[in-house]
C-alpha cells in the first residue's frame, strides 16, 4: 500500500469532498481522483461511492479510514517523541489549567526530578479544558493535569489524582473567621467578589447563589487578584483550598464554616487511551497517581 495514496484518501474521507481535499493538499482534483483510483486498485475494494453530490464511504472505506487515522496518529506521535528526546534528556509536555499549574505542578515536578534528574518539563497553560483536550488529541501534549470536567471523547482516559475543595473564603480578621457555623442567610449579607465568567469557579458560585439577593462589589479575572482582594477585606469569594492553604496557616484568610459553600472537586490526570507512552511518561503517570498531594 502506498502511504501517500492512503493519506490522500484519509483527507478526502475527513472532508467528505474531493474538491476540499484538493485545496487542503494543494493538488488538482483529477490528481485526487487518480490517487483514490490507484488505492482502490491496490486494495481490490471500492472505498468511496459518489452519486451526484452524494458522498459516502463504503464499509471497506470506513474500515480503511479508521486504520488510516491510527497510522497517521502514530506517525505524529513518533515525530513528537523524537522531538522530545534529547541526547541525555527527555522532555514531557504537560497541559495544565492556570490553577493546577500554579498550585500543584511545581510540587509535582520538584518531587519527580529529585529521582529523575534527566527529565525536563514543558508546561502548556490553558484556562479551557476543551483547548487542552484538543492539544492532547493532536499529540501536542503527553498528559493533562486539571480539574475534572465532562469529557465526551472516548479516546481520553480520566484518572483522579487528589480531591481539592472549593470553599468560601473570608479575611483572616473577620468576626466570622472563628469557625462558627454560618447560615446561608448570614453569608449572603456580605459583599461578594466574583471571578471571570470563563473560570470553572464562577458557575459554581452562581449556582449556589441562585435566587439570592447579593452585593457583588468586584469581578476579577485573576485568582490571585481575588485572593488579594479578600485579604484586604473588600469582600468574600470562593477559592480552591489548595490555593489558600498558606494564607490560612498565616492567618491572612479563613474558610467560612458554611457547608453549602463547600464543593469537592477532583484534580485529574487525562491521557490518550491508545497513546504509546515512553518509560519516563509511564513513570511520571504512576508517580502522580501514587502520591498524596496538597497543592503549593
Automatic annotation (TrEMBL):
Q: Which UniProt keywords apply?
A: DNA-binding, Transcription, Transcription regulation
User: Which is one Pfam family of this protein?
Assistant: LysR_substrate
The record places domain HTH lysR-type at 1-58
Q: Which domain of life is it from?
A: Bacteria
Translocase keyword on record: no
Q: Which family does it belong to?
A: Belongs to the LysR transcriptional regulatory family.
**What PANTHER family has UniProt attached to this entry?**
HTH-TYPE TRANSCRIPTIONAL REGULATOR, HTH-TYPE TRANSCRIPTIONAL REGULATOR CITR
The name under which this protein is listed is: LysR family transcriptional regulator
